Amino acid sequence: MKNILIINQYGSTPSTGFGGRTYYLAQALARSNKVTIVYGSFHHLLRSDDHQISDVKFNHGDPFSINTLKLLRYSNSRSILRIINWFIFSFKLCFLSRKNIGFQPTCIIYSSPALPGYLGAYILSRRFSCPLFIEVRDIWPLSIVALGRFSKNNVLVILLSQIEKFAYRTADGVISNLYNLQNHISKSTGKITRFHFSPNGVVKNNSLINKMSQGSEALGSILCELRKLQSAGKTIVGYVGGLAPANAMDLLIDTALLANDDSDLFFVIVGDGPERKRLEARCAGLSLQNIQFYPGVLKLEVPLLLEAMHILFLANQFKEIYSFGVSPIKLPEYLESKKPIVHVTNSRSLLDEFQCWEVVREYEPSAVIRSIYTLKNLPESEKLQIGERVHKYTYMTLNYDSIGDSLISFLEDVNS
Fold this sequence. Notes:
The protein is an alpha/beta fold. It is 42% helix and 17% strand. The longest helix has 18 residues, at 380-397.
């Protein structure tokens, strides 16, 4: 049994935010280990302006603790207070005690993308004389430069780059859901480090539980409209997730524009994010009648929503950064749904590994629409057969219990 401390400034629970990888991984690890998660009390990914509070959660009787560090409240992701919180969080990490954590940690996992907190985690690991691992879920600061938000000569970017290199050099190992991250680490530092690939996953029995529930009033309203589209004979091409530059929603809008004369196709985007207003304005400017936006839903309601769609869409911009890997949170949920998927990417896709559906290697609406028609025209019996096979394989290989067991093996190998 290990005493595992997981630190993620942007973490949340299913009730305060989206739950996400850290929460569900902690659930899995708590089956045979003592686990405490440290979150920031406030960040822009929460569902309300309330601060998160410390709590104890249970996974089928196995407890794990959530310890929140008080941070400043801010209004949006571009606020200067968000940056200030990075350093407040890092400073407070240095002073975490055994009493705060609930045990003497035998290993610490620090989860990106907020890099300054790694410095606090590093000091903490030296205080407790335990190994420190960094989990990379997004390659900062490379991603914020590649997506055009900052110059590589920006002072903040230079500082984050130095912290990133320090992390790769000093961590006892690197964990990531990005398959080729080692190439980036080698390019950045010239160092070969202990590396463990740990994909995003699904929660066992989660979709079954959700499909037995009614969902919220907001979800009910969306489902009612989707059922009307179904009754009208429409094939619904849907996206569920965040609306940020990385999600490449302009490509889906361009595809809807190309399919504007096809009365059988209808496009649905469900989600929130900094790009939403611009995307809606663009659709209005193009006078598109075959696309509709809906607000985001709770993570627990996503399976009910996917059930009402016919084809699911996912894409990333074709930037060099994605050659190091992509691991969209929604893809395992898409695979779990049994629905046909169009994945537009210049990186490795789980669809290749699972040998299913359509991977598009061109960032062109004409290529996307061809794949949509390919899936649309598949016999229903073939769709069901592929969907069942993929669903079964997803649960076998991408459930968080298995991902957690693999991670424990890696941690033990490094310590041996």
